[in-house]
Structure of Putative D-amino acid dehydrogenase, small subunit:
Amino acid sequence: MYIVCNINEFLSSMPNINNVKPEVAVIGAGIIGVTTALQLQKAGYQVTLIDKLGIGEGCSKGNAGHFATEQVFPLADSSLLPKIPSMLLDPLGPFRISLPYLLKALPWFLKFITNMRPSAYEKNKLALRRLNLQALPAWKRILSELRMEHLIELKGSLLTFEQQSSEQALKILALYQAEDISVQLLNRAQLEQLQPGLDTRVHCALYFNEVGHTINPYLLTQTLYQECQRLGVIFKKTEVTEINHLKNQPIVGFIDAKSQSFDKLVLCTGAFSKKLCLQLGYKIPIEAERGYHLMAQAASMPKIPIASFDKKFIMTPMAEGLRLAGTVEFSGLKQPANYKRALALLPLGQAIWPAITTKLTDDNLIMWMGCRPSLPDSKPIISQSGKHQSIYFNLGHQHLGLTLAATSAELITALISSNNPTIELSDFSINRFN
């Protein structure tokens, strides 16, 4: 009797008599890469984490610190269309498209507009909701194992309304409730009880009571990396110049060292993924969606993150002060930061939280800019390559990198380990763009 089988499956099922761990390269050491490296090392792989800047030195360092599980709505919303002219004209508006960059980004925006179709919008929304439902449970699993639960504060967040009417707030409330998001509409008296100190112009707010924040997203990333080190993850601070694929093995080329082969490879390179993906035969429509923050001091601090529906920004209480963050700017990876956009956040913050004492004339204002990895359908890529079975992708999380890092790491680890992921991943396949 003859038995026909796949030789790779046969070899993988054989006992590892030398106890040699399969080697995995994780390229990108932001919060996505670090959580991915941690989960893979725990699953029995020998992980090499690679980044040219260091651990958590990109968006993971300067994000708003908000675990925004309520944000299930794709950015590609048809309500944006009438606002596009003002986006082009207002250099400090909440959604800015740089005129010199517009022509280069036009193919991305055409795909973005296509995703505004009701059927596409609904599909993308449902996919995001499936991911977001798993986000905080995944974070709790990671941090409880480390006994570091204090790194996330689960106190909720507010979405305030100042100029918009209460009727508008009720409409927004209904949208969230239709998605089974736990939310309450609070009037002014209720807000005084929950969060005293809001400006009197805030007449009502939505209270999301099942979301969280961290007072130091950079520390969170560093703490997870320390656990990676303890478990044996290797870190290489260098730039990856190319990725090749030979005999089912990824080969990584470095700018300052000879190439190295691995058994598997995961790209977690965020907004900087386009070039490396192209080398692997994938032309992905990823754009750098630049965001800014400004650190402010205040006589008293809010207890929870506060976002403004009217002003389109968020403030989060952090260990070193009040972080004012937000804005969307499409201007590419190479243009210098426009810190006027960060400075514009200060009067917005003072209009919501009058206890802010920082002034625009202060010396040594702390400002930051980072590039979010934005895809036109607002969904990340959590996927095995259809061209090379030993290469995987975990990137493109847009505004939800911090929120989705833990569950994305669990999902990609399950995929690499040939286990069944907890959700269907076809919506997040890289093949949707190719």
